[in-house]
Design a protein that fits this description.
about 300 residues; alpha/beta; Rossmann fold; six-stranded mixed β-sheet; 10 helices; binds adenosine-5'-diphosphate
Length: about 300
């Protein structure tokens, strides 16, 4: 069951065009929506999760008209927002039980089985009696996944899931996401390239409300093959490369800038051809769309 987005636009009251005529087909499996802060990711996620209205466009999930049949969407939706807001002073078990009840699992025995299985799945069984308000970032995210899985969703939306997690927590979260069924559309919205690299077989890049790329990460990498050049430069040279318009990224390695430049040929002496990374794909698109200097 594909999610088909056509001509989706949203302008806020202050005139910010958060989505500008976005058309995108999202197949089942793990899909990465990559974009810098302010790109329009959360706006898109909230519209798909029926929490916000679009100005124009259509969205279909199988037979469901997502923008107009909100109740139908909610029955098959699992949503993990960027922030839950206030974490209540109730235990993980009580909260999951409560959410399951709200989602219509009214049979007590069935609900007990479901809640226990979910707590095991996200590895929070030992912590089931602890208050959510005392959970670490990683535990909160795993709890978020557990609640989003109630009701066997067909569409799971995860907004900026790994922001603020330490590397260990991030790995545990990645492992958990990969266990979600193959027949589900899972959209992972993130500004972290590594999230997409590790998890997604399809992706899109958006910036300033516009779709810049849609396809498989591997195809995007192939498109850049032989065009990414690397050099370690002096800090004083940085400005010249920034002005050149071909700079993709600029990273400090042991205190010295190491830059990546896009070009069909070696830009100048001292540049070495490097294997493109997904980060190069991301920054070359973002850079191309803004022409602003980029700090990776
Ligand atoms: P992202 O999730 O990629 O960071 P958002 O969808 O949150 O992007 O924001 C896209 C743009 O819309 C940004 O310029 C943001 O400032 C603006 N924006 C987001 N929400 C609102 C709002 N409620 N009112 C006005 N502008 C908003």
């Amino acid at each position: 069951m594909d999610l088909i987005i056509q001509g989706l636009s949203k302008t806020y009251g202050n005139g910010v065009k958060a989505l500008d005529n976005v058309s995108l087909t999202i197949p089942t499996g793990m899909f990465g929506l990559l974009g810098p802060n302010g790109a329009g990711k959360s706006t898109l996620m909230r519209i798909l999760a029926t929490l916000q209205e679009a100005d124009a466009g259509t969205v279909k999930l199988g037979d469901i008209d997502v923008l107009n049949e909100k109740d139908k969407v909610r029955r098959v939706l699992g949503y993990l927002p960027q922030e839950f807001g206030v974490y209540p002073r109730v235990s993980a078990y009580e909260m999951l039980d409560h959410i399951a009840l709200l989602k219509g699992v009214t049979n007590t025995g069935e609900r007990k089985g479901l809640v226990e299985a979910l707590l095991q799945k996200v590895n929070l069984w030992e912590q089931r009696k602890r208050r959510l308000s005392g959970f670490s970032g990683g535990m909160k995210q795993r709890f978020g996944i557990a609640q989003s899985l109630i009701g066997e969703p067909k569409l799971i939306i995860v907004d900026e899931p790994t922001a603020g997690l330490d590397p260990g927590e991030r790995n545990r979260f990645y492992n958990l996401l990969t266990e979600i069924g193959e027949n589900v559309v899972v959209i992972l919205s993130t500004h972290i390239v590594q999230d997409v690299q590790e998890l997604c077989n399809n992706m899109a890049i958006i910036n300033k409300g516009k779709l810049l790329y849609a396809g498989a990460p591997n195809d995007a990498l192939k498109g850049l093959a032989g065009k990414v050049w690397e050099k370690s430069i002096a800090k004083s040279e940085l400005e010249r490369f920034m002005a050149s318009g071909t700079l993709i990224s600029n990273k400090l390695v042991a205190g010295k800038p190491v830059i990546h430049v896009l070009g069909a040929q070696r830009p100048e002496e001292g540049f070495a051809s490097v294997e493109p990374s997904l980060e190069d794909v991301f920054f070359s698109h973002i850079h191309g769309s803004t022409n602003a200097p980029v700090n990776a």
